[in-house]
Structure formats: C-alpha cells, structure tokens
C-alpha cells in the first residue's frame, strides 16, 4: 500500500537537507518527536550534529534527551538551569529581546540558553510542530470549527510572537535558526491534509500524522516519546516561580519588575502596583511594538489610561 503522506515526508526531508547540508549544526533538542526527527534527518546530511538540551539536573526533558541522543548516536550537551543562574538568564533574555510577556519568557528561555551554549553558528529547531501537527492538549477532541479557530490562533501567535522573539535571540548570539516545520513546502503539504486526520482523539493521538512520517522514515523509537511543554519539561517554570516567591512576587510581577528595571530604570522598591490582566498575546505584542516606537513603555501607557479614566469618570474616551 502506498504511503499516504509521501509528499509531506519529502517536504520535511528537503527542508532539513536544504538547511543543514555540509554544515556544522547545533540542535535545540528536547528529546521529543519534533526535535528528534529533525535531528535524525540532520545526521544524514550535515557535516556534524550536536544536540543541546536546557533544563534542571533532574528535568523530564533532560532525562528523555539523554536517552534519545544515545539511540540516535549523536553527541549531547546538557545546558544546566539552576537557582544560581536562572535570574541571569531571565535578565539577559529580556534585555536581548525586549519581551515582557511572562509566558513567552517561560518557553523561550530554553532556546536562549541553547544558543548561548552552542558552538555552532546554525541551530536547528523543531518549533512549529505543535501548531501544525496538533501537539497541544487544547486540540484534543475538538469539533472541526473549534479546531480551525484554535489552529489559526496558535499559528498567529507562533508567527507574530514566538518567531520574532527567537529571531532576536539568534541575532543576539550571532546564530542562524533553521525551522523545517515552518518551511513553506511543509506547511503547504499540511494544508492539504484532511483536518479530521490532524485533530487528535486523545492525548496519545496528538501529532499522529508526524508520527506516521517518522515511522515510515525508519525511526520507530520517536513514536514512544511522551512530551511535556518545554517550560515544564525543562523545569524552567518551577525555577522562575521559586525565584518569584523568594522576592515576594507572583510570576508575572517578577517578570514585569525585571523588564521595568532594564528598560525603564525602575528598581523594585520604586515600582508601583502591578496590574494583573489577561490580554491576547498577539494584540499585546503588536501594541507594545507601537508603544516602543513612540518612545514609551507599557507602564507609562497604563498610567495614562488610568488617569484618563479618573478624569472622565467613565470609559467613553477609551472607546
């Protein structure tokens, strides 16, 4: 029987081959299916491949990555995260990227630390697989309409928030990032797949299409890789929460305090109250770009908004 995803398979292989052929490659390696598949393919075409995994000493990702690196026969480096260095990583990443979003910080710290540690100029990443092959729990059991809406929102955040942040990280360290799963050839082929084949029925059937590709390419060991979100699998979130508690702050308050100290010169003792509000991440990112271009910052803008509300006694001026 003919393999049903041959065109997709060829697109993924071509994307990896074109990005790594004859080059020395570092991989942001979590030990899961996404980074595992591109690492295995890179081994076929690159001059050399070295895997880098960020995490605490006993982190889930570290354990999984060490095991898979041995199965793939590729050299591996553990980039240690600890209470002793996490604050420095957070400060340096916010300074390099200008991000103030706590969620973005939590999952991009891994790439930041890998890019700092990697000796190679090119870093291969499995970014985009969750969004295009339905790796997130939120996709499980969704109706077709809900699935389409969730997928579109996830891809929008990926392209408008995550990738721009990662480009800044790469520029900071003088690296080039290779994104096989975001290659237009790959995303085009994914777009031709019946959504019913992509929507996971349960947690174990997430990324079922990509698993079929990995199996057909000869990597059955990748199908058994149970994966956590990077911020949890690496232990990053637990570390940042611990730091925040020590400083008497919530997670988002701590990130806001670091951002204000770097960009606004406001030490914690001189900060005002932190506003806890949920805003669409893409909307936040786009608005903050305009705010920065105008020479201001989110804290100053919120101060203006609140003063206007007090002056007017209503919200009419904000509509």
Descriptive account of the structure:
The protein has 319 residues and is of the alpha/beta class. It has 2 domains: 228 residues, 3-Layer(aba) Sandwich (Rossmann fold); 43 residues, no CATH class. It has a 5-stranded parallel sheet. The radius of gyration is 21 Å and the shape is globular. The protein starts with 5 loop residues before the first helix and ends in a 7-residue tail after the last helix.
A few lines on this structure:
It is built from 15 helices and 5 strands. The protein is an alpha/beta fold and 319 residues long.
Low confidence ranges = none
> Which architecture of the largest domain per CATH?
3-Layer(aba) Sandwich
Q: Report the CATH topology name of the largest domain.
A: Rossmann fold
Tell me the distance between the termini: 60 Å
CATH H-tier superfamily of the largest domain = HUPs
* Global structural class: alpha/beta
Q: How many beta strands in the DSSP annotation? A: 5
Number of helices: 15
Number of separate domains: 2
* Largest sheet report: 5 strands, parallel
The Rg value, from CA coordinates, equals 21 Å
Q: In percent, how much strand structure appears in the residues? A: 5-15%
Provide mean pLDDT, rounded.
88
Helix and strand run: HEHEHEHHEHHEHHHHHHHH
Strands in their spatial order, largest beta sheet:
3-2-1-4-5
CATH class of the largest domain: Alpha Beta
Helix content: 55-70%
Overall form: globular
């Amino acid at each position: 029987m003919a393999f049903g995803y041959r065109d997709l398979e060829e697109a993924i292989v071509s994307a990896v081959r074109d990005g790594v052929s004859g080059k020395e490659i570092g991989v942001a390696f979590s030990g899961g299916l996404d980074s595992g598949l591109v690492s295995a393919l890179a081994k076929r075409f690159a001059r050399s491949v070295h895997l880098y995994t960020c995490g605490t000493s006993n982190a889930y990702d570290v354990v999984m990555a060490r095991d898979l690196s041995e199965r793939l026969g590729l050299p591996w480096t553990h980039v240690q995260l600890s209470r002793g260095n996490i604050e420095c990583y957070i400060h340096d990443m916010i300074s390099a990227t200008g991000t103030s979003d706590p969620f973005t910080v939590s999952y991009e710290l891994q790439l930041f630390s890998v890019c700092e540690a990697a000796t190679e100029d090119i870093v291969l990443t499995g970014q985009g697989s969750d969004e295009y092959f339905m790796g997130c729990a939120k996709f499980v059991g969704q109706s077709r309409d809900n699935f389409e809406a969730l997928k579109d929102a996830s891809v929008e955040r990926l392209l408008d928030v995550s990738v721009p942040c990662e480009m800044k990280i790469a520029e900071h360290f003088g690296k080039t990032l290779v994104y096989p799963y975001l290659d237009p050839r790959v995303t085009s082929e994914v777009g031709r797949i019946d959504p019913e084949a992509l929507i996971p029925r349960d947690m174990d059937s997430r990324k079922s299409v990509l698993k079929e590709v990995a199996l057909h390419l000869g990597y059955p060991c990748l199908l058994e890789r149970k994966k956590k979100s990077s911020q949890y699998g690496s232990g990053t979130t637990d570390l940042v929460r611990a730091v925040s508690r020590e400083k008497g702050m919530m997670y988002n308050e701590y990130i806001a305090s670091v951002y204000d100290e770097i960009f606004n010169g406001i030490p914690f003792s001189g900060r005002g109250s932190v506003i806890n509000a949920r805003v669409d991440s893409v909307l936040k990112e786009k608005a903050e770009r305009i705010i920065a271009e105008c020479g201001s910052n989110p804290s100053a803008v919120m101060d203006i908004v609140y003063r206007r509300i007090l002056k007017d006694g209503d919200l009419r001026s904000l509509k």
